[in-house]
Amino acid sequence: MMKYCCFGVMLLLGLLTGCRKEFPVLEDPDNHIVGSFSAEFETFWQGMNNQYVFWDRDPTDWDAVYREYKPKFAELNLYREEDHEKAYYYYRDMTANLIDAHFTLSTQVVPAGEPTSLSPASQRNLRRADWHPPLPESFFFDSIFQQYLGDDSYRSKDASGNPSLVAGYARDRAILYLRLPRFNLRETALTGTDDERLVWQYFVDAIKNPQAEGLILDLRGNGGGYLEDLSFLLGQLITKPYVFGATRYKSGPGRLDYTAWIPAQVFPQQGSQAFTKPVVVLVDQYSASMSELTAVAVKAFPGGLGRVVGETTWGATGPVGSRTMFNSGPFFTAASYVYMASHQFRDTRQLSYEGKGIGPDAAVPQDGNALAQNVDVQLEKAIQLFQ
Q1: What are the percentages of helix, strand and coil residues in the chain, rounded to 5?
Q2: Measured between alpha carbons, how far is 344 from 268 in angstroms, rounded to an integer?
Q3: What digits encode the pLDDT tens for the residues 206-224?
Q4: Considering Cα of 177, then 181, then 182, then 185, what sign does the dihedral take?
Q5: pLDDT tens for each residue of 44-68
Q6: Strand 175-179 to 344-347 pairing
Q7: What is the mean pLDDT of residues 78-105?
Q8: How far apart are CA 104 and CA 324, in angstroms?
Q9: What is the mean pLDDT of residues 126-147?
Q10: Sign of the C-alpha dihedral computed for residues 7, 12, 16 and 21 taken in this order
Q11: R_g of the chain, CA atoms, integer Å
Q12: The pTM is what?
């Protein structure tokens, strides 16, 4: 079974392709052997030109990039380390405005003091007015477990001893809480540690409790994972499939070659039972990819029962899959690796969140002073919504 990370109507391509003149299609970047910075630039530029999936909405003029940076790379020498550092900054500037928040470029030489890979989304996040460092996983594993959950609660560690699933009821309330640090849930449920499998089974049994007032899914700091977890998790709460958006990918090498939009659905799991109580998703600025798709899917939950609480998310909603299958997505050059989305995603209102993030229904910024006192204002807001 193929796994996708994380994460119809055809466009009027005839109208859109006239917006910018395209350069000739070059060779497959994965099979292009280079011996100069100029050839390496050609390979990278061509890979992006053919396989980047957001050209219909990205503000970057990729042809202007070619005209400006082709001569700059031609002046560089592969045998001078300082030229490798120049190339690093050229790549940074070329890609600074790409909206694909999965986009990451890893090169062989990184200047001292610079990030080991180039991520435009990371730089955008650092410029946010509400920027803060991510919450440590120990906060969920210890502070929330001890301060907010009742006696009938469980927590687990993975095979490496790292904090994993946390589940239980809010103290003095029948509100079920589930903490997911990452999306490898199906694999965890099948082959995880004994404690992880125990916590997952506890959750599956608890959501069938008729006394439950609702569910809080805590996805703060969760950077994503496997797309199959979307149905594996939310499919426990439904008995019929439902549509929460649509995806499309590249149908060919042309910049604006796209497939039709394909409905994105959540499917019920074996033994599932309809959950008819409110569902709240907690997110922050580090909730990305599968966390964001889950938030959108909860907002579309049957009966209008889903809410999102916290901060605007990372903005990486395009799923990542095989480039050879989808004509878009990650690729290698001789000297770098490019990681990026293979699909576009939009919700049922045809809204795209790529590079922008998902705004919460109830905005609650992180409060560092409160956290120092083990007070979680975001979780407390989520609990208040059940009153």
Answers
A1: 35, 20, 50
A2: 24
A3: 999 999 999 999 999 999 9
A4: negative
A5: 999 999 999 999 999 999 999 999 9
A6: unpaired
A7: 96
A8: 19
A9: 96
A10: positive
A11: 22
A12: 0.90
> Which of 253, 235, 236 is CA-nearest to residue 244?
235
CB environment 20-32: b (16+ within 10 A), e (fewer): eeeeeeeebbeeb
3-state DSSP assignment of residue 15: helix
- For residue 381 the two structure tokens come to 């807001």
- Does residue 346 contact residue 300 with C-beta atoms inside 8 Å? no
Instruction: Report whether pLDDT(12) > 50.
Output: no
Nearest-5° angle of CA 73, CA 79, CA 82?
65
Contact predicate 166/202, CB 8 Å: no
Question: What are 14's two structure tokens?
Answer: 């005839």
C-alpha pair distances (Å), 237 with each of 73, 206, 208: 54, 11, 9
Average pLDDT, the chain: 91
The contacts of residue 249 (CB under 8 Å, 6+ apart) are 53, 258, 259, 321, 326, 327, 328, 342, 343, 344
| pLDDT band (50, 70, 90) for residue 108 | confident
* Token pair for 150: 């009742």
Give the pairing of strands 331-332 and 336-339.
antiparallel
**Residues contacting residue 240 through CB under 8 Å, at least 6 positions apart:** 268, 302
β-partners of residue 225 are 183
Residues 155-209 have pLDDT tens digits of 999 999 999 999 999 999 999 999 999 999 999 999 999 999 999 999 999 999 9
332 - beta bridge partners? 337
Domain 137-317+345-384: give its CATH code: 3.90.226.10
| Alpha-carbon gap, residue 57 to 352, rounded angstroms | 10
Can you give the three-state secondary structure of 193-242, one letter per residue?
CHHHHHHHHHHHHHCCCCCCCEEEEECCCCCCECCCHHHHHHHHHCCCCE
Which of 42, 18, 16, 12 lies closest to 29 in space, CA to CA?
A: 42
Angstrom CA distances, 330 to 34, 93, 102, stand at: 19, 20, 10
